[in-house]
Write a structure and sequence with these properties.
- The protein has two domains: 125 residues, NAD(P)-binding Rossmann-like Domain (Rossmann fold, 3-Layer(aba) Sandwich); 163 residues, Dihydrodipicolinate Reductase, domain 2 (2-Layer Sandwich).
- It is built from eleven helices and 14 strands.
- The strands form two sheets. A seven-stranded parallel β-sheet has the order 3-2-1-4-5-7-6, with helices on both faces. A seven-stranded mixed β-sheet has the order 9-10-8-11-14-13-12.
- Strand 1, helix 1 and strand 2 form a beta-alpha-beta unit.
- Helix 6 packs parallel to helix 11.
- The longest helix is centred in the middle third of the chain and has 16 residues.
- It is globular.
């Protein structure tokens, strides 16, 4: 059995990790940390887990608490994993970080966007970006995994086949909407129901932290600089990301060829579902699952291809993807613990 620890077990991604790993046949959760709930039974805070975690209690986020783990997940705010990763790695413990601490390869760029000095910049070079559909082979040998963000996952999977084919202009547009759980489990006026309900808004239009992450990934695939206009929106739902992506075709490509391009690229990807051409995927169709659903449109038969990409931000955009990466690292089938049908309605 793989002994797993979770740092930050009281946030939304932390409890999703608990829910997924509690039913994982090859994993035993041996440590869950929380500074505010030390000594409390995990299933007392989250009654939905009653009967699945025995008498597991929260402990302080210390090396001592985590030292017997084979893998430690960080479901924490940015700036936390980089303070503990080096000591855990030195003990031979694999680290899977769901925050942004190790995603960007350019340290100066990271410090610019996250507003702090990186405490473990020497680890960044060897961190493997946790988007299995692109970095599967590298993840199999990774000791430090930097899980892809939620917005970056939906956007990169949506554009990926086009950039690999080289059939679009590299001035791209991503118009993306997220549910409020993407902001985390904290008391904040902007995410109160009375603030978000019956409302819809764009934010961080002049620059969102996920922009350099998405651009880094797309540029690597295209092998040349990609110019991305990325506009995130907050929508009054709990879960889900809906990305509406725009790319101008630079070669004559038929609707059938475009559909075949996506179906062929993702034919062996269990967690990417390419819908029939002209479909309209709903976020509810992937809610609670580790799947990304994608559909293509070519309005008025023009040159602008519209790609619709939807995920559950807490699963494929966070906890589920982290478990998918863990499965790869420990030589397990990627779908272990993740074979779940989306919730409907």
């Amino acid at each position: 059995m793989i002994k797993a620890g979770i740092v930050g077990g009281t946030g939304y991604t932390g409890v999703e990790l608990l829910r997924i790993l509690a039913l994982h046949s090859e994993v035993e959760i041996t440590a869950v940390t929380s500074r505010s709930d030390v000594g409390m039974r995990v299933d007392a805070l989250y009654p939905n887990l009653r009967g699945y975690l025995a008498d597991l209690t929260f402990c302080l986020p210390t090396i001592e608490c985590l030292s017997n783990c084979d893998v430690v997940f960080f479901a924490t705010p940015n700036g936390t994993a980089m303070l503990m990763a080096k000591e855990l790695l030195a003990l031979g413990i694999k680290v899977i970080d769901l925050s942004a601490d190790f995603r960007l390869k350019d340290v100066a760029e990271w410090e610019k966007w996250y507003g702090m000095t990186h405490a473990s910049s020497d680890l960044i070079e060897n961190a493997v970006y946790g988007l299995p559909e692109i970095h599967r082979e590298k993840l199999k040998n990774a000791d430090l995994i930097a899980c892809a963000g939620c917005y970056p996952t939906a956007v990169q999977l949506g554009f990926l086949p086009l950039l690999e084919k080289g059939c679009v202009d590299l001035n791209l547009i991503a118009d993306v909407k997220s549910g409020v759980s993407g902001a985390g489990r904290k008391a904040e006026i902007a995410t109160l129901m009375s603030e978000t309900g019956e409302s819809f808004k764009a934010y961080a239009v002049n620059g969102h932290r996920h922009l350099p992450e998405i651009t880094q990934g797309l540029t690597a695939v295209a092998n040349q600089a990609v110019n991305l206009t990325f506009v995130p929106h907050l929508t009054p739902m709990i879960r889900g990301i809906h990305a509406t992506l725009y790319a101008n075709l630079t070669t004559e490509v038929s609707v059938e060829e475009l559909q075949n391009l996506y179906e062929t690229r993702y034919a062996d990807e269990e967690f990417v579902d390419v819908l029939p051409f002209g479909s309209h995927p709903d976020t509810r169709n992937v809610r609670g699952s580790n799947r990304c659903q994608i559909a293509l449109h070519l309005p008025q038969g023009g040159k602008t291809l519209v790609i619709l990409s939807v995920i559950d931000n807490l699963i494929k955009g966070a906890a589920g993807q982290a478990v998918q990466a863990m499965n790869l690292r420990f030589g397990l089938a990627e779908n272990y613990g993740l074979k779940t049908v989306a919730l409907y309605p």
